[in-house]
Specification:
By secondary structure, this protein is an alpha+beta fold. Helices cover about 35% and strands about 10% of the residues. It contains two helices and two strands, in the order βαβα.
Length: about 60
């Protein structure tokens, strides 16, 4: 893991998976656990709400 790279997990579907990834030092994740697939119009609305300030979901526990 110590190559100066950040790890992104794709396809995360449950809190159990998030916990497993955190234990292994994964930095970011995406998948159905965070949001289901959506149209561009729905995404624009979704982002304009509480999700806009962050660009990625960080799993880091800093």
């Amino acid at each position: 893991y110590d190559m100066g790279l950040e790890i992104v997990a794709e396809g995360v579907e449950s809190a159990v998976q998030v916990a497993w990834l955190l234990e292994r030092g994964v930095h970011y994740a995406q998948g159905w656990y965070y949001a289901k697939p959506m149209t561009a119009a729905t995404l624009a609305t979704w982002l304009s709400k509480a999700h806009a300030p962050r660009q990625a979901v960080s799993l880091a526990t800093t």
